[in-house]
Amino acid sequence: MQTILGAKGAIGTGLAKELTSYANKIRLVSRRPKKVNDNDFLFAADLTKPEEADEAIAGSEIVYLAIGTDYNTKVWQQVWPLIMRNVIDACKKHNAKLVFFDNMYMYDPDYLNNMTEDTPIRPVSKKGVVRAEIAQMLLNEVKTGALTAMIVRSADFIGVQNSALTETVVKNLLKRKKAIWFANVNKLHSYTFIPDAARGTAILGNTPDAYNQVWHLPTINEPLTGKQWIELFAKEAGVKPRYQVLSKNMMGILGLFVPVLKELKEMVYQYELDYVFDSSKFEERFQYKPVSPQEAVAYVVRELKKEKAEAKKKITDY
């Protein structure tokens, strides 16, 4: 049995599809799980409760912790340490391997232009502090030999769901509105294509000698500037590459009315500097080539247009 904790998100959904190549039994866990594959086992659980986390993990060979919580600092501070503790304890009890899907918020900004698995840990945001704390919880258990686990990390997402890029750039362009970028449109910014991230996670989870270390998931290795990303999406969508840049101060003001901008403000340093995410360790180990920027952009625009057409058809049929 392979179990996905946080099975309703973009990564969890993609991972469920990928795991069919490796496992006959796949358990999907969330507060309100839904099947991805016909033979999925569903389990509803609140992972902040130790007994529910224990029941969700019991009988698992491999557990993937890929949950998403509200993008809110206070929620992260309260919820994430609880979830990590409960999941680690349950995995140890049931002798399950743990794969933790992480991000790069804990990395030292001085090394943002060349992030590798060895990049120093020095978070400068409250969310980054939380991420550093829970990653260290896992690594401490691995160091003692009490847990077999790995951390897999991605850059910001490019995809249809759970992608700030899609929400602020692509959807606006498709509505013939100005794309929104943050801080500096001339800085490089790497993106991890969600299907690549899901496939990479499945590969790593089912590679025994990949455990007890950190891996960067396959990420588009042609980083573009914000302006280049906007131009690429606009060309694919058949619109003009119009955009506006939100400064940190403007994000603070607008955050009074748009809560997510208030939460993003502390992360804006990632747009003030070149942000380059290196996944060569994974690519070389598994002879894997991530999608190109053009392939990722074409996929996202095509899928969003398809969703819009299907929604319009439902209204017409009704």
Explain this structure:
The chain is α/β, with parallel strands linked by helices and 318 residues long. It has two domains: 2-155 and 193-216, NAD(P)-binding Rossmann-like Domain (Rossmann fold, 3-Layer(aba) Sandwich); 164-188 and 222-276 and 288-317, UDP-galactose 4-epimerase, domain 1, CATH 3.90.25. Helices cover 45% and strands 15% of the residues. It has twelve helices and 13 strands. It has helices at residues 10-18, 50-57, 73-94, 126-144, 164-174, 194-205, 226-237, 248-254, 259-264, 269-272, 280-286, 293-317, and strands spanning 2-5, 26-30, 41-44, 62-65, 97-102, 149-153, 157-158, 179-182, 188-189, 192-193, 214-216, 224-225, 243-246. The strands form four sheets. A seven-stranded parallel β-sheet has the order 3-2-1-4-5-6-11, with helices on both faces. It has a two-stranded parallel sheet with strand order 7-10. A two-stranded parallel sheet has the order 8-13. α1 (10-18) packs across α6 (194-205) and α7 crosses α12 (293-317). The chain starts with a strand and ends with a helix. The model has no long low-confidence stretch (mean pLDDT 93).
